[in-house]
Amino acid sequence: MTSGTAHTSVGAEPPDSPLELTVNGRPRRALVRSHHTLLEVLRTDLGLTGTKECCLVGECGACTVILDGRSVDACLVLALEAAGSDVVTIEGLAAADGLDALQQAFLDHGAAQCGFCIPGQLVAARALLQAIPEPSRAEVEDGLAGNLCRCAGYEQIIEAVLDAAERQARPAAVHAPERASAPKGPPAGPDPASVPDARVAPQ
Amino acid sequence: MRGFAFEQPGSLAEALAILRAEPDARILAGGTDLIIGLRDGSILSPTVIDLKRVRELDASIVETVGGLAIGALTAMTEIAADPRIRARYTALAEGAAVVGSVQIRNRATLAGNICNASPAADTTPALLAFGAVLTVHGPDGSRQVALDDAFVSSGVTTLGHDEIVVRIDLPAIPGRVGSTHVRRTRRRGHDLASVTIACAVLESGETRVAFGSVGPRPLLRVDTTGILADPSATDAARLEILDDVFAAAAPSAGSMRASPEYRLAMLRVLGLRAVETARARRDGAAA
User: Fold this and answer.
1) In DSSP terms, which residues pair with B151 in a beta bridge?
2) Structural domains of chain A, count
3) ipTM for the complex shown
4) Is there a single domain that holds both residue A133 and residue A81?
């Protein structure tokens, strides 16, 4: 598909439409084409490139974001459908003072190999833990069935999600990361939706 | 994706007016099929009508006289989680629970699954088994369509271009009932099915079997002999009935998911399993 720039349609172009929505707690606006997806607008117009473009048919989950509290494939949502909505992307997962429990658990378990699917995995896992705070292994497998990992690092991903759930459920329990790969991992960060996306990666 | 006009009508009347004025306009509810088609060019439409702001439409599941009415914007996630559907219309909850992935189920609507009329749709066999009825609004007002009268072939229904499904009714089921949805996929997780069966066993001894993915549209057959619902019936006796039930199955040879021979063989295997699971559930046994 034509991403963000020129495209192939002939004849009169519908005019750009104003879009207002909340992304990672921040009100955002953009002028968007009616046929552009939420994925394109997040990446191209808002510069939030942590959400990955991959299969574009809703099979791989690399573009997973949380839309009004539910995980969706951003490639299958038109940007204008999301008008007025609350969106959480991977950039909104971490708290201001450290990583989200899931991010820390992914690091501790070596869950990221090539890393391309990981933003989608993390966002899907965040939505899963919001819906089911203490999922069974089967619930994790089902909850992440829409997120493919071409490195096939599924075991580590599932273990990381189960571990993060455990850390969140029992924040008092000592779960010192074996490898200090990041500043201390807070057991349960604030609601991701309220976190400003201060670390928006520049394009 | 090619450009299109994007409309978000606030009422059914407005939505119907746009549909009348633009014969190639397409309706958007969850978008999990439509946006893929618009992107790959298999669907070309100058106008996309998003129904999510239509005030007469909602995502509710409400109780009717003994049954349930499901709003046109209800997503698979709600269907799969609803305790009333899980208890009384179990096969529908099970079918909705295996559509796509969590991300897809959070968007995809039951009404969209019906209107797209895929032979492999996971919810339509259960809806057929439960005798679902669509309420449809069009230029001449409202009409009701039994779901069995709606399907024609892959992607084709008897609903008009200028009609919009507003509600899906699940009628009351008298007495005890047990039901299940079973399917065959190539792998666990996110996959389209090569055989889909929904079976409902009623207290009266009537057994309804609906099956998809083995022909141009899902089919419903009703066994009134009582043999399928009889706990003491042998597999051989049940298979004799099931071979009649599945006689109209006509899987296409062109599918890459499974050969016709495999689908027909699996239909019998899964059919037996579905009947026994539904029967056991009706009779209160753990299935």
Assistant:
1) B157
2) 2
3) 0.94
4) no
Closest chain B residue to A38, measured at CA: B35
Sheet of B141-146, strands arranged across: B61-63, B68-71, B164-170, B133-138, B141-146
What confidence tens digit (pLDDT) does each residue in B156-206 have?
Answer: 999 999 999 999 999 999 999 999 999 988 776 667 778 999 999 999 999
Show the domain range for A26: 17-92
Note the pTM of the prediction, 2 decimals: 0.90
| Domain at B177-282: CATH architecture | 2-Layer Sandwich (3.30)
| Last residue within a domain, chosen from A62, A92, A122 | A92
A166: in domain: yes
Give tens-digit pLDDT for B225-271: 999 999 999 999 999 999 999 999 998 887 777 889 999 999 999 99
Q: What are the residue ranges in chain A where pLDDT is below 50?
A: 1-11, 179-196, 198-203
| Cβ contacts of A96 within 8 Å, gap of 6 or more | A195, A196, A198
Q: What is the dihedral of CA A143, A144, A146, A150, to 10 degrees?
A: -170
For chain B, what are the domain ranges? Answer: 5-49, 61-170, 177-282
Q: Are residues A87 and A169 in the same domain?
A: no
Which among B32, B44, B41 has a CA at the least distance from the CA of B76?
A: B32
Tell whether A1 is covered by a domain: no
Do A124 and A144 meet the contact criterion of CB atoms below 8 Å apart?
Answer: yes
Question: Is residue A11 a part of any domain in this protein?
Answer: no
A8/B contact by beta carbon, under 8 A: yes
Residue A196: Cβ within 10 Å count = 13
pLDDT at A173: 55
Between helices A101-108 and A154-169, what is the axis angle to 10°?
Answer: 130
How many residue contacts between A and B have a Cβ separation below 8 Å?
A: 102
Q: Indicate which of A10, A40, A55, A71 best probes the interface with B, i.e. most B CBs within 10 Å of its own CB.
A: A71
Residue range B61-170 forms a domain whose CATH class is alpha beta
How far is Cα B130 from Cα B210, in angstroms, rounded to an integer?
Answer: 9
B50 to chain A: closest CA residue: A81
